[in-house]
Amino acid sequence: MSLENNATESLPGKPELTVDGDWNRVHPASPFVRGWVALAAVGFFFGRDAFERMLQGRDFVDPNLSGRAPWLLAGGAVVLLLTVGGFILSWYFTRYQVAEGYVRVNTGFLFKQQRQARLDRVQAIDIVQPLLARIFGLAELKFEVADAGESAVRLAYLPLDQAKQLRATILARAAGVVSGPETAAEVPEAPEHVVLSVPPSRLIGSLLLSEQTVGIFLGAAVVVTTSVLFDNNAIFLALIPGILGIAASYWSSFNKGYNFTAAISPDGIRLRYGLLDTQAQTLPPGRIQALMVAQPPLWRIFGWYRIHVNVAGYGLAASTDGARTMLLPVGLKPEVFRMMSLVLPDPGVEDPERVFTAGLDGLGPVQPNTATSDGFTTTPRRARLLAPLGWRRNGFLATKTALLIRSGRWWHTLVMVPHQRTQSMALHQGPWARRFRVADLVLHTTAGPVSPRVFQADVEQAVELFDQQAARAREARKRQTSEQWLAQVAPQAPELAATLTEQPAQPAPPQTSPQQEDRHDG
Amino acid sequence: MHTEAIDPPGVQWLRVSPKYVTVRLVEWAIGNVVMLVILSLPLVFVLLGWWRWPPLWLAITVPAVVLVLALWRLVLIPRQVRAIGYAERDDDLLIRRGIFFQRTMVVPYGRMQYVDVAVGPVERSLGLCTLKLHTASAGTNAQLPGLPAVEGARLREQLSARGEARLAGL
């Protein structure tokens, strides 16, 4: 039985059930932009021969082919017509509508699909522009709800302005600012305030100092040694595909991370990045389920960090290419703090900077009796055999609003889970851990690159945390709403605060009924 | 029921039906007997003189080790079943399991997306069922096997009623 699983529904049959908004079509060129590969293949297949002949200064049509040429040409024309006809049909039968708190998309002409998603369940909205679409000024809009699968709604392609307009409309309606069946044109795009951008030089540096590079150097050392030992140069030839692959992976990281800009707007956090394919993500307030700051060993030279997040709609498939779940590809400590404060405006401690610094780089005391200066509760000294390197690093700290978990002596990581985003929790204890009286606490969040786990905490402290955390999560869920998020972010972007208060019908007081809370948090 | 160190203090665990041991035994038999038969084939062939390889000692050792491990797991089954426990608290459900690798899990009622009740053929003949809780996190994986069917139905209704009362979004 479903408690609240109605975020997306595929309705069978019955097309026009409650239609009041206009049904719109995507841009007519979109099937061609999407299917250009198919067209190019057809063109290549039938055009290559003629083209080559022209280059060689012969007739456009091979004279020897006179018997077969009409058939070939006719075949090519039929294939082309079928493809183009299919494109036109698929365009004609794809329609969308934003009305009554839903976005609806109808697709398909033989197998019809009708899909609707509730606007207030939006987890993230992305505007993606692949290179070809960018040349034509088109963009794809992706609408994510929390089911961790594919995007709930994808509209490809719209003119860029229209896509932005639609995003503004959806977000405004999701926030309850605008209601009723007005057309999209009336909602202005929310103003934004750029928080940080990553210079290309730092991006290149971060790629060169990444774990990947270390691996490559180790691999290269092995290859050189073996080739010297066996006096055999053929091994280098075998490496060429590998080198190409590595170059491609560097290129894709660079392509995705290029020109990374983070901005804050009343709609949420805006991320924009990409060299050839550009992407603009909008994460509405409070949609980030967990956050991880990580620092590979070599990045410590320059004090760089990166941030990954779990967002319900992005799911696991997105974490494989890594770009969508990246909140910051590379940044200095102040920038990390700024992003963390956007995600969690109220850190719930007196001195957030000191606490976060301790979480990023801190080490617990060697002797158990010395007072822990940085506030983190670390692995007890008796369990140092279980974690000979990390026992002073592994630690947790519960603030009023979030649980901070740090780990890793060489790979520094700091995980932050807001209390109201904790789904469920589990204590794990294996035989060795029991022998040393420690236990692991695992927090379950939505699918994504961050998996929060407190390593080897003292068993009594772990049980206490387990109990308290359940209570804290319960309290936080009752208290926290997205409005508070906006109010707390406002001081950082004063001009936004002004626009916010001017907007009519701002959803009401922080203490909402369960239903309303559900609407904002769902 | 005995309380372990990682269990929250003052929790009264409810145990699953002892009949669940039978279900586990059937699962054990299906898994291990088939495997043992396959692994013993080389031994038979070697003894019959059809095969020259592997050597006799190897043909004996491999199934013997597997047999010992399987018997070890067999001996553990009743204790493992006894180690499964659950407790309904005001705002969340606690589930524990495991002897060597223990796990205690808390699932807040407001976080449950849906509740499954599954019944397999062996479970059905014994009047048991398995309750699964799903939250927005794939990691939750909260299962309560071996509940009597009546208790499973009661828990399902109870959990969904409580879930609706404390409904929270993500």
Question: How would you describe what is shown here?
Answer:
The complex is a heterodimer of chains A (522) and B (170). Chain A has 522 residues and is α+β, with helices and mostly antiparallel strands. Among the domains of chain A are: 27-93, no CATH class; 200-256; 288-480, no CATH class. In chain A, 38% of the residues lie in helices and 24% in strands. Chain A contains 17 helices and 22 strands. Chain A has helices at residues 30-34, 36-55, 69-92, 131-135, 160-174, 200-208, 211-230, 234-238, 240-257, 315-321, 333-343, 352-361, 431-435, 459-479, 482-489, 494-502, 514-521; strands spanning 8-10, 24-25, 95-99, 102-107, 113-118, 124-129, 138-144, 153-159, 193-197, 261-265, 268-273, 278-283, 288-295, 305-311, 326-331, 377-378, 395-398, 402-407, 412-418, 424-429, 438-444, 453-458. Chain A has a seven-stranded antiparallel beta sheet with strand order 8-7-6-12-11-10-9. In chain A, α2 packs antiparallel against α3 (69-92). Chain A is globular. The relative contact order of chain A is 0.09. Mean pLDDT of chain A is 78; it is low at 1-19, 179-185 and 482-522. By secondary structure, chain B is of the alpha+beta class. Chain B folds into two domains: 20-80; 84-165, PH-domain like, CATH 2.30.29. Chain B has four helices and seven strands, in the order βααββββαββα. In chain B, the strands form two sheets. In chain B, strands 1-2-3-4 form a four-stranded antiparallel beta sheet. A three-stranded antiparallel beta sheet of chain B has the order 5-6-7, sandwiched between helices. In chain B, β3 (92-97) and β4 (102-108) form a beta hairpin. In chain B, α1 (20-48) runs antiparallel to α2. β20 (424-429) of chain A pairs antiparallel with β4 (102-108) of chain B.
